[in-house]
Write a structure and sequence with these properties.
- This protein is an alpha/beta fold.
- The protein has 4 helices and 5 strands.
- A 5-stranded mixed beta sheet has the order 1-2-3-4-5, sandwiched between helices.
- The chain is globular, with a radius of gyration of 16 Å.
Length: about 130
């Protein structure tokens, strides 16, 4: 679910940091609603879930933690809210039982965005 302008940023990060990662998962669905009352057949229920689920660009497994990654060409404060939400939803998601850290990957961020990330325990990985 990465935008076309975000893909080169992610590829640059991979060039610089790929040795950190154990596994990478792309377009990971979190949250979402599985209908309590069956609607149609299983395919319809699955489609309903897929439409309501949030999609994380990348989940990167490292040795001792998991990065919930948002990649942005021109990040703004919206990226902070997305990362906070993704990390919260991650803990409702069965799977990797390592601590989750929200990580914004970008070429640059301004001081307000940097401060907001710090306050909420999120990280930025700036690539050159």
């Amino acid at each position: 679910h990465m935008l076309a302008e975000d893909i080169p940023i992610w590829n640059t990060l991979l060039d610089q940091y790929s040795s950190l990662f154990v596994r990478l998962f792309y377009d990971v669905r979190l949250g979402g609603i599985w209908p309590i009352e069956p609607i149609g057949n299983y395919k319809m229920q699955e489609m309903y879930y897929n439409v309501t689920a949030k999609r994380v660009a990348v989940v990167a497994e490292l040795t001792h933690e998991v990065w919930i990654v948002e990649v942005a060409h021109q990040p703004g404060l919206r990226a902070v809210g997305q990362l906070m939400s993704y990390v919260a939803l991650w803990y409702d998601h069965p799977g990797l039982s390592k601590p989750a850290i929200g990580v914004l990957v970008a070429r640059s961020i301004d001081s307000d965005l940097k401060r907001a990330l710090e306050i909420y325990g999120l990280r930025a990985r700036l690539i050159g």
